[in-house]
Amino acid sequence: MISNQFSGATAFLSFVSALSLLESETTDALQSKLYQKKYRKGELILETGTVCKRIYFVNMGLVKTFFYTDTREFIMRFFAEGNMFTVLDSFVLQQPSAYAVLALEDTLITCLNYDDLDMLCRRYHSVETFYRKLLSLAAVNMMDRIGSNLEEKAQMAYHKFLKAYGPLMQRISLADVASYLGITQVSLSRIRAMK
């Protein structure tokens, strides 16, 4: 268990360091605030209507962020090993989330709480730089996701999905792919049949 904790923290810290080089004191302070959580396949990591109080890093497994309307489910993103995520608006504003997060596989996540990140940002410039860059990347990814939905036809969106998530295709259900693309499974089957 200790080796998993260490490797999870190491991967989290490597991700952070790729965005902002951390001094050794900063690394120690950040590492002391990290902890791991395990989720079983099908378990909610965050429920709709609750405040997102963590940044998550996927050590092992696969998750999706999604929301429901009266008629269907819409998937915003998938996150697999090596990805950091949060429900951005809920986390930044500390308000109830319109989205939920679900483990699609048994999943191991390294977490950092909002209050701890806030304290570390105030104390260490390099952590503040990391957080600013993480928010910037999240905003760019969200704009790209929104733009894809508004501009692209389903077939183009599917090919873009394959480019982004191709290695995960065996791990994501066709129902979830269709939901992500905003189309029916029948439409997805037609698109997949085209070569």
Automatic annotation (TrEMBL):
Query: What name does the UniProt record give this protein?
Result: Crp/Fnr family transcriptional regulator
Question: What are the Cyclic nucleotide-binding domain coordinates in residue numbering?
Answer: 18-120
Q: Which InterPro entries does the entry link to?
A: cNMP-bd_dom, cNMP-bd_dom_sf, RmlC-like_jellyroll
Annotated CDD domains: CAP_ED
- Membrane-spanning segments: none
